[in-house]
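Let's do one together. I've listed all components of the complex below, 849 residues spread over two lines.
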Amino acid sequence: MRNYIIRRLLLLILVLWGVTLVTFILMHVVPGDPAKVLLGKLSGNEVLVTKLQHQLGLDKPLVVQYFEFVKGVLRGDLGNSYKFKAPVMSLILERMPATIKLTFGALIIGLLIGLSSGIISAVRRYSVWDTFSMAFAFFGVSTPVFWLAMLLQLLFAVRLGWFHVSGFEGLRDLVLPSVTLGLIYSASIARMTRSSILEVIRMDYVRTARAKGAPERIVIFRHVFRNALIPVVTLIGMQFGGLLTGAALTETVFQIPGVGKLLINSTLDLDYPMIQGGVIFVAIIFVLINLLVDILYAYLDPTIRYD
Amino acid sequence: MFKKQISILLVVLLVAIFAFTGCKSTATTPSGDTATPVATTDPTVGGILYDYSSGDLDGFDPQSGTSLLLFNACRQIYSNLVTVGYKDFTIMPDAAKSWDTSKDGRTITFHVRNDVYFGDGTKLTANDVKFTFERCFDPNGPAFSSGVVDYYLSPAKIVGGQAKMDAKASAVSGIKVLDDYTISFTLEQPFAPFIQILAIPSFGILSEKAMKQMGDTYFAHPVGSGPFYVKEWQRGSHILYAANLKYFKGRPALDAVHVDIVEDENTQVLKFEKGEIDALQPPVAQYDELVKKYATNVYKTADMSYYRIDFNLKRKGPLQDKRVRQAICYAINREQILDKILKGQGYLAKGIFPPKLPAYTSDLPGFSYDLAKAKELMKEAGYSNGFSLEMVMRSGKMEDEHLAFQEALKQIGITVNLTKADSATYWQLLGAGETDIAYRNWYADYADPDNFVTPLFHTGADSNMGWAKPEYDAIIDKAAKMTTISDRIPLYQELEKKLIYQDVVQFPLWHSITTVILNPKVRNYYLHPSGIVTYYPIYLVR
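Okay, and this is what the predicted structure of the assembly comes out as:
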């Protein structure tokens, strides 16, 4: 296992190189000039455009620009944001606490609701519980996140006055955005858990466990649930990555200073260093989470071995 | 019996509220504004005002941009040499207690107060003023790319400014520190709006000492000498301004102002309804409902703005024919758009200058909606079968108006191909002149007609889509050099007639109105025609 982890981490370097190259090419293929974006109303003034392009180093050949960027990355310097005129790394790190809090809040709620309703609907298939939780999942999957957010704000903040409408100054402010995202994520977790359990529940070893007289609770949690978790863990891993790299809409509605909004805005502003830094950050998160998910596979299913 | 007593009590209470507080009145001033509640007694000291901003800042560098967001922030934390009134553009002393102008009108000498302190405890001197303006002309500084030099300083032509920008001089020879509290500015030629320009928040005075000590971090933790200082700034979340208790004009009535950064319009409304913010500019989509609900707390002010359609005269094609441009002006029902889409938040423009500007005149013909006339003009120009036009618009910005223009021009056979672009592409297309017409606006930074004609019509200006006419430039330059406003007005009015009615360079649409709904406890919240709200005079009743 240790060798596997080292190998995967080494692979991360290759992934990051590929990601930076593709991002760099895409950024320069897409129409738009960061200097003109920064100049806004003045973008018609060619003298200013040329001067700013020179100041930002955009007048250098693309190859030179790319290698300068890679050289910076190797030294741990992702450059300075054009817009904020501050180091990209510190801007991302500044926003991480809010994103991490939101991610864990949403994940806890998503897992609690998603796993429990998935298990109940699989075990009590075709019951009222099943119908109810699958209807809930159906609505959850098809509900736009901003709409749900607004409904929750209206009910719990404006009508009942339990929470602030938006803001991020205390743990209480974490509740509504976490519930919003958690409810949305719980829907897909519930559906995945249900179908996965239904698949496993028909397996011979489950029948054997029951034939041996094992209590139903033991059958479900020890034999069925653990084996059914593999696809669910994959899904949760992806959602976890998605949340860590930003939930821009939720952040906007609830006024959370997270990474998602920062990355989306950087893309719209053509803030090249910020986009590149953001992409590297996203890539690292996803590679690490995939690695974590793979390690969890081995724990959940002893037949899986990587060495 | 009991019910009757309650009713009488309620009536008495209501009468008392209206009689004694006067806070629900929405008196209409001659300009069409409604006056916000003002102080009737001594302001109550203390309390926090909760406001919001629809976008975040990049920092608090006054020279780094010309956006309203930045202007609003800088107005609270920096002092200028001079400033403007809370609700109009009257020039008032700020860090400078007085100023003299030389006989030739070229040299203006400012006498700086000796009781102005920066947040770090150091005294503001003429050297800080010089440092601030020298930084504006730094070829590697932010002012050259932010519009601060282009819009404000270049027209003023301070002696030696260009030499420093061209890296031919290390200092601006026209800015001289005469002693610790006296500084003079020498211009290449008299420039009437110069003092007004100095009141723009971009020229907030920086502390030389603090900037040299703090470097780039200065603008995340700005050291100013204004009525408030930035106590806390969490990017993307909020800004907390705390009262500067040593402010040279006396401490602000408020203890603090908490500005939430709320981009989402629905969230802004919900926050106001919950009482989490004290002032709201109602979004158009919910305007009618909100204005009806909070009818007694709705206030309006006419902005110093100009919305128009630009014709790209650089491009070959039907727009080269003046009759086609006139046809477009007659084919668009502006009243309907103003009423239905903008909910009446504006008034029709006959010319360039808004009513609060000295050069404003109502003595202009105007383009009233006349479809028959528009069709006739198209026929005369030989385009009765119509043609196609390109029009670029920013996604999410004024989309409904663009669709209305498209629909209106269809009636005279013009097919408008709308290109929806993100900000980056929009500015690129506009800058490159890759659009036939464009719907744009201009908000005055200072109350002088020059602030409309130079940036919008002077040859080489960035916002004029290639329009150039040297004889008009000569009028613009001549008027800017004249120091008596009454002498300048006829020149601007003549120019306005020529540009709009003789050459039809632009189609004036409307001048906007800003609406705000206030929490009834807020007093002295003045809506400035520039859009800036100064927190200094505001206080809260308990």
